[in-house]
Recover the amino acids of this structure.
């Protein structure tokens, strides 16, 4: 006999209330995925270093044209509020003080993956596709490449490409600017 446990799904409103009342604190490394409060993986030196590199790169390259957000919430729906490693957002005068960014605010989301590669591909990528995020990159530290996901349809991306060292790519929203994979991964 299989036993089924009952679970409770939370809305972003309830999730925010838990934060406001102190049930969840800044030291809790969690995010809301499909109504479930999910513990985030610990950040190792390699991962942290790569996020810093990308933050510096994107901040310098798109100064004044995009807000570079690091490990902050993106409100995808009333049940999902992940915290991607990097988000390139449309500029807003209030820097999103009045609300968290939503899918229509996103130019690009980037997940840095080493130990989280399977979860990023199997959980985050479908979630982003469902929310119609136009472009997502996985910076795959283990294989030293950038996986590019575009053309969301249902829970998948129709255009998936892998860019390796020595190659260049661009962001859809800034298609006229080539970006070297080596600059993203470091020399």
């Amino acid at each position: 006999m299989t036993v089924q446990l009952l679970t409770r799904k939370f809305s972003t409103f309830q999730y925010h209330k838990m934060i406001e009342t102190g049930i969840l604190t800044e030291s809790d490394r969690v995010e809301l995925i499909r109504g479930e409060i999910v513990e985030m993986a610990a950040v190792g030196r390699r991962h942290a270093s790569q996020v810093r590199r990308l933050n510096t790169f994107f901040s310098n390259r798109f100064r004044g044209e995009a807000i570079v957000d690091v490990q902050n919430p993106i409100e995808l729906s009333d049940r999902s509020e992940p915290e991607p490693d990097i988000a390139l957002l449309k500029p807003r005068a209030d820097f999103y003080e009045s609300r968290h960014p939503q899918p229509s605010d996103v130019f690009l989301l980037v997940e840095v993956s080493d130990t989280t590669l399977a979860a990023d591909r199997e959980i985050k990528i479908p979630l982003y596709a469902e929310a119609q995020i136009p472009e997502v990159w996985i910076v795959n530290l283990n294989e030293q490449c950038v996986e590019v996901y575009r053309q969301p349809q249902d829970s998948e991306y129709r255009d998936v490409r892998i860019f390796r060292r020595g190659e260049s790519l661009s962001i859809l929203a800034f298609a006229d600017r080539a970006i070297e994979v080596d600059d993203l991964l470091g020399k």
In short: Residues 31 and 37 are 6 Å apart (CA to CA). The domain at 43-185 is CATH 3.90.1570.10 (tt1808, chain A).
